[in-house]
Specification:
- The chain has a single domain, classed as Porin, CATH 2.40.160.
- The N terminus is likely disordered.
- The protein is globular and about 40 Å long.
- The termini are far apart.
- The chain contains 3 helices and 8 strands, in the order ααβββββββαβ.
Length: 144
Amino acid sequence: MLAFAVMPLLASCSAPASPGAAPAREINTRLDGWYRGQRIPLSSTAFCRDQPRKVWFRVERGAVEVLTSRHRRSARMRPLLTGTVSYDGEMALEHDAGHRATGRVEGDRVTAQDLPEAVAELRHERNACVHRYEATRSDAGDED
């Protein structure tokens, strides 16, 4: 009997939504999608001999992955970087080897760059160099 009296009381205690607040579904999914672009090395040094490489950003509910292919069946599906994206589009990315990058999603474009101090710590690795990532939103029909 007491449970029936408490339920309406709890329902009336919920805070009203603030004016102009976006629905929770929109907050979680407005940046969601695939973004096709490339990873561009910023310098050509003894530590960095990379060439520009095609990459895909997959944004889903606040999580982001940087992949070399968007096909699930690809053996190369292991992400280059993983991280989070905030509601305002700020990204924080990292790789399990300590490689870190930051970036931003604005409209239909993604830009990111490796953190130079994180790369400096990895100089002992064979291919440690600073990259810039640029991508644009891709339609569902776009291919690899």
